[in-house]
Amino acid sequence: QVQLVESGGGLVQAGGSLRLSCAASGILFSMYTVDWHCQVPGQQREWVAGITGGGITHYADSVKGRFTISKDNAKNTVYLQMDNLKPEDTAVYYCGAISRGGNYWGQGTQVTVSS
Fold first, then answer.
1. Are strands 91-98 and 104-105 parallel, antiparallel or unpaired?
2. CA-to-CA separations, 13 to 3, 52, 75, 87, 105, in angstroms, rounded
3. Could you tell me the CA-to-CA distances from 42 to 39, 99, 112, 115 in Å, in that order?
4. How open is the CA angle 60-70-7, to the nearest 5 degrees?
5. Residue 18 — φ and ψ, nearest 5°?
């Protein structure tokens, strides 16, 4: 059974930092592209960042220079370091493992940035 579990969300003031974690069981992240998405209630889910199985990273323009995606294959965990947070970053953040064989998603973690 595949399970992705996000953690690390919370309440932080603007300019602060959080580190989100996405731990997987049942699959190996080294075989997947792992994406972080965010969603505000009533709006579409938006892609934030991604890291390929080979470690190549990509970022949405809105987070470039502020967020860093990384992974630890030994721990089968992907991280999203979020620095210089802004109130508009407030959302539920989801990690997803993407492959041709299927996609898997976690349950999400809430990030709230106060002004």
1. antiparallel
2. 31, 31, 30, 8, 28
3. 8, 27, 16, 21
4. 90
5. -140, 155
User: Amino acid letter at 40?
Assistant: V
3-state secondary structure of 70: strand
- Which residues lie closer than 8 Å to 61 by C-beta, 6 or more apart? none
Q: Which tens digit of pLDDT belongs to each residue from 24-83?
A: 999 999 999 999 999 999 999 999 999 999 999 999 999 999 999 999 999 999 999 999
Site of tokens 């996405």: 22
Supply 46's token pair: 């938006």
Residues found in the chain: 115
